[in-house]
Design goal:
Layout (H helix, E strand, L loop, with lengths): L44 E2 L2 E5 L2 H8 L9 E3 L5 E4 L17 H7 L11 H11 L11
Antiparallel strand pairs: 1-2, 3-4
């Protein structure tokens, strides 16, 4: 990520793990897939209101497409812009599915096939807890 003063901070996130950090208005977040064909989930909360988060539904509605690319705005559940896609080298993104959870694996995959794969929801809990977030109310039932 780059701050407006061009100071660069790098967060390398190992596979099957997560990271949490704060961004300020005007910061630029650059996501790079160094090994190719990796999957990542993005969760974002408003700095001034932890009840406001990145919403794929509002983003699709307001952009009138599910195919997000350069120039599209990512919106919160309160209809406020959170991010603008400044550059897109990939061209096709899956912003439709919810981040995986243990329940997702139990429902979508045959028994025993995903036992050692950590769910994104659980991976997020550690870094977000360091940022004083509690995800217990977001946990699927």
């Amino acid at each position: 990520m780059t701050h407006p003063d061009q100071t660069e901070r790098v967060h390398r996130i190992p596979p099957q793990s997560g990271s949490g950090f704060s961004l300020q208005k005007g910061d630029v977040l650059v996501v790079i897939d160094p090994q190719g064909e990796q999957v990542s989930d993005l969760m974002a909360f408003a700095a001034d209101n932890k009840e406001e988060w990145l919403s794929s539904g509002r983003t699709f509605d307001y952009n009138e497409t599910i195919y997000l690319t350069t120039g599209h705005v990512l919106y919160s559940n309160r209809s406020r812009p959170m991010f603008t896609l400044l550059r897109d080298d990939v061209g096709r993104h899956d912003f439709l599915l919810t981040p995986c959870s243990t329940e997702t694996f139990e429902i979508l995959y045959p028994p025993g096939t995903a036992e050692d794969i950590p769910a994104a929801f659980l991976i997020w809990c550690r870094p977000l807890n360091r940022l004083a977030f509690s995800l217990t109310r977001f946990r699927p039932r």
